[in-house]
Amino acid sequence: MGGVTVDESNPIWSVVSRIVDRVREGDESTETIPGQPAGQSPALEEPTEPRDPLHPKPDQAAPELRTATGRPVDGSAQDRAQDGAHLTSAQGVRLSDSDHSLKAGPRGPVLLQDHHLREKLMHFDHERIPERVVHARGAAAHGVFVSYGTAANVTKAAFLQEGVETPTFTRFSTVIGSRGSADTVRDTRGFATKFYTSEGVYDLVANNIPVFFIQDAIKFPDLVHAAKPHPDREIPQAQSAHDTFWDFVSLHTEAMHHTIWVMSDRGIPRSYRTMEGFGVHTWRLVNAHGETTLAKFLWKPKLGVHSLVWEEAQICNGVDPDFHRRDLADAIEAGIYPEWELCIQTFPDTPEQTFEGIDLLDPTKLVPEELAPAQPVGLLTLNRNPTNYFAETEQVAFHAGHLVPGIDVTDDPLLAGRLFSYLDTQLLRLGGPNFAQLPINRPHAPINDMLRDGMHQTAVHTGVAPYKPNSLDGGCPFFAGVPEGGYVEVPAPVAAAQKVREAPESFADHFTQPRMFWLSLSPVEREHTIDGFVFELGKCYEQAVKERTLRALAEIDHYLCERVAEGLGLPAPEPARELPDVPPSPALSQVGSIWPVKGRVVGIVADDSADLDEVRFLRSAVFNGDMVPLIIAPTGGELGADTDDPLTVQRSFVTGRSVELDALILVSAPTPGGDAFATRDAKAWSGADASVDPRVELMLTEAYRHAKPLGALTAARSAFDSARIPTRAPGVVIDDDVEALFRGVVDLLHQHRIWERFPAHA
Question: Which residue intervals define the domain Catalase core in the entry (predicted)?
Answer without folding.
Answer: 88-476
